[in-house]
Amino acid sequence: MNVLLVHAHPEPGSLNGALRDFSIKRLEAAGHHVQLSDLYAMNWKAVLDANDSTAPPAGTRFDPSLDSGRAFANGTQTADIAGEQDKLRWADAVILQFPLWWYSMPAILKGWVDRVYAHGFAYGVGEHSDHHWGDRFGEGTMAGKRAMLVVTAGGWASHYSPRGINGPIDDILFPIQHGILYYPGFDVLPPHVIYRTGRLDQDRFARACAALGQRLDTLATTAPLPFRRQNGGAYDIPALTLRPELAPGRHGFAIHLDQA
Amino acid sequence: MNVLLVHAHPEPGSLNGALRDFSIKRLEAAGHHVQLSDLYAMNWKAVLDANDSTAPPAGTRFDPSLDSGRAFANGTQTADIAGEQDKLRWADAVILQFPLWWYSMPAILKGWVDRVYAHGFAYGVGEHSDHHWGDRFGEGTMAGKRAMLVVTAGGWASHYSPRGINGPIDDILFPIQHGILYYPGFDVLPPHVIYRTGRLDQDRFARACAALGQRLDTLATTAPLPFRRQNGGAYDIPALTLRPELAPGRHGFAIHLDQA
């Protein structure tokens, strides 16, 4: 497979840097082709603004959505954005690897999403009607591709457990896994989370690599999270609420997984 | 009160820009003192890195947490970070106002959190022992201050309803409200969310301002979300799981609110 690894840590010699190097080696040894977007090393521009198009805003005001759509359609995106979109088109699988900072991704990676996910590319795709609300949540540009998060966290696993103070890790990651990855069509694999990384000695690092290696070895075969397709009949359109007969009486992130 | 408004939108003439101007006028008319951190206008540096200290990393490698703690303790933080911390110390209430991009804040605002929330300032504060796991989640540097999110979203309210496809808005915002605001001690007010902002005509804008104005008028008096205090006996330490007799048998973000 073609694998794109998007990596966001400021220190090449960090645990995250070591996991990045381990992943590339492991994937290449298995015969995969790997491209790396090492956002700090690339000095990635994190902030979406009017300079993301080589053409001026079409209106009197910059509109983040409309102007990104025009730049995408007219070929006036900056080279860094177009380059990342090319990598995404090339990839069969995408791995986002990052430390959990304040319960989300580092700003530089959020800015990769904000800027690379152009209107017409990652959203605003497909028919919008009273029975099809865009190609999204199960359809879209990334359909047929796989994606996986590899996340390091300083806290303990119990802090992220179902009754842990931080909230369950699956819920913390839902806006990323469902809202950023499943939205444009990726099949999203279960995340790989490494906890308590502040105290990772040689032995625990070896075990962390073994566990991550196992996930990389099965990247092509692991069953994705069973998120429900938006346009497959599970949701009322345009309200986009889950139909009452599915997960009846329940609410929250978990109802968007078909666990029947 | 002293109110800090942190604002993150690239276009001054946008709806978000108009809401920013409206908020400042409304708050000042009520006698509050307002400081504005208009992150795009300030050309805020979004990306946390070794340049956030005027001193070199203490070790051979840059450590985002340890080095931010050293810079904070030694007075070697960059002026932009120290300036925002001063604004936070000055404020009695903080408003974060932003468009919801990919189910979270724009990268520039995430980068404000990543960089301003230094170790020793927003985390790593207070005793860490087997009965007190740091001054956080109800205690900390921001204790006694109020915070509120003002968020614009292109989607419909139903899309963010309890059974909406995006997930409930309270769950989407939990990592910010609980993880970023309550963590260092803020009392967090219910969020103010404005939906379907792509089609806001003059009439709906007037109504949006009226509703926001009402929230600003009651900034000092609105009851905060009843998040549970970490060190008040509700959680087992160090596992930091909610004690079994509280919200028995339940799990997820909502159990961290004391709704008894």
From TrEMBL, chains A, B:
It comes from Microvirgula aerodenitrificans. GO terms for cellular component: cytosol. This is NAD(P)H dehydrogenase. Residues 1-215 form the Flavodoxin-like fold domain. GO terms for molecular function: NAD(P)H dehydrogenase (quinone) activity. It comes from the Bacteria. Belongs to the NAD(P)H dehydrogenase (quinone) family. InterPro entries: Flavodoxin_fold, Flavoprotein-like_sf, NAD(P)H_dehydrogenase_qn. Keywords: Oxidoreductase. The keyword Oxidoreductase applies. The keyword Ligase does not apply.
